[in-house]
Amino acid sequence: MPETKYTLVQHSGFVAGGNPQFERAVEPRSVHSKVEEKAVLRVGGVLTESYREIVELEERINGVTGDLPFLDVKGQFADVTVGGCPVYIPVREIVG
């Protein structure tokens, strides 16, 4: 059985629930196939094998401080979806 990988997608509170508070928020999503993995990477999304790592990244990107999320992520959302939610494409910083 293939290892589960994880990515970040636009928050389902907006995608499925229509709540505008979550329009600029992300949440973790499992990636279940090589086809999905390739699609996530092709559009510039993030992919990790660690659920803990993706949750930490989610909190950092969403700007969660204590119980107050700011929910105004930088970056954009792709036309490619995983689990029905658009894949998050982070802002890439050029270093060096």
Unreliable stretches, pLDDT < 50, 5 or more residues? none
Instruction: Note the run of SSEs as H and E.
Output: EHEHHEE
What is the percent of helical residues?
25-40%
Tell me, briefly, the overall form.
globular
Tally of strands: 4
User: What is the C-alpha radius of gyration, as a whole number of Å?
Assistant: 13 Å
Order of strands, widest sheet: 1-2
Helix vs. strand class: alpha+beta
Distance, first to last CA: 40 Å
Report the biggest beta sheet as strand number plus sense, adding barrel if it closes: 2 strands, antiparallel
In terms of quaternary structure, the protein is single chain
Strand content: 25-35%
User: Treating each run of at least 4 consecutive H or I residues as one helix, how many helices?
Assistant: 3
Look at the structure and give the mean pLDDT. Answer: 89
